[in-house]
Design a protein that fits this description.
OB fold (Dihydrolipoamide Acetyltransferase, E2P), 4-stranded antiparallel sheet
């Protein structure tokens, strides 16, 4: 299993809102494919799949606030 983690978002930004999941549990993804959109008070960001595989778990829903370092999903 490989975690999908919220990366460091820059100076003084510690949380973001999940704007949209572009994939669902059970879907196949390729390494580098954008799987999730998040937004902060300053910017919107795309989160890419760190590896190829199947989305096995989604831990947060659209609209949820997440912290830097949170595991938002997993790929197997």
């Amino acid at each position: 299993m490989t975690d999908i983690i919220i990366p460091n978002l820059g100076n003084e930004i510690s949380e973001a809102e999940i704007t949209e999941w572009l994939v669902g549990a059970g879907e196949e993804v390729e390494e580098g494919e954008v799987v999730l959109l998040i937004s902060t008070t300053k910017t919107a960001l795309e989160i890419e799949a760190p590896v190829s595989g199947k989305i096995s778990q989604i831990n947060f829903s659209e609209g949820d606030l997440v912290q830097v370092g949170d595991v938002v999903g997993q790929i197997e």
